[in-house]
Amino acid sequence: MNPIFVMPEYRRPPGMNAPATVLSALVGGVGALSLAWAARSGITAFYWIGAIVLIAAALIPAALKMANQWERAVVLRLGRLQSIAGPGMFWIIPVIDQVAYWLDQRIQTTEFNAQTALSKDTVPVNIDAVIFWQVHDTERAALEITDYRRAITQVAETSLREMVGSSMLSTLLAERKQSDEALREVIGRKTGDWGISVISVEIRDIGVPAALQDAMSRQAQAERERLARVALAQAEQEVAIKFVEAADIYGRSPAAMQLRAMNIIYETTKERGTTILIPSAMVDAMNPGGLLGLVQAANPPAAAAP
Description:
Elements lengths: L17 H24 L2 H20 E4 L3 E7 L2 E6 L2 E4 L5 E8 L3 E11 L5 E12 L2 H6 L4 H18 L3 H6 L1 H16 L4 E12 L2 H43 L1 H15 L11 H7 L1 H11 L8
Antiparallel strand pairs: 1-4, 2-3, 2-5, 6-7, 7-8
């Protein structure tokens, strides 16, 4: 399979800018005109003026620098810190001054991980995280440490391993927000001396071995079954309590028991083609004659017409 060639992204070198180029071209044009006038008129002074102007035009790109809004330039003069320049246009003295560092003050991200780190309960885990940080003190970031980007990565990985080693796996899985905040405080305390502020740390993924995942799945399933059985037992207990209360009511009121029996018969005979055989003892218990007498007493027959 042929490898895919990716064109690298073009980025201008820090400090290169269009105003310096245009100004250098204009000054160089003036120098060229001065030399041309000297050649035409024969005046030696114009040769000197043209040469000086051309030298100035060549030095303008090295002397006139421009920093974007988010950039800061660390200017050294003969090896000593001169200033922190930017944003915008600024001048330096060629040869004597140099821009040692260009620092980006925007919020930046760094990915890091802790591969096969052992938790407090000796479980190997792989954790991927990302840190959001920002340079708040360009002088300290440039002078206090050689490579702050690499240092941030190493500090983040070390802090992550320390946190994993002092925490239980269940705590890492259940309290991810607390772990993020603890990491942010630990890493921020270490990088604060370098002029770096840690804005936030986010754990993206926590990986555990496949065998442990299967065991955790079985444990969770067993826990859910236990809760389901407990809920079913509680429901049966509540139903039994209601049955006992209903039995007490029926025991104190035989008429209510008879009405309940008749309602059961009615519910079972609503469907067509249903045949019910009622034992005589049950019929006597329902006392249909007494109930019929009560109904007739409530609804007397109409008097016959003379």
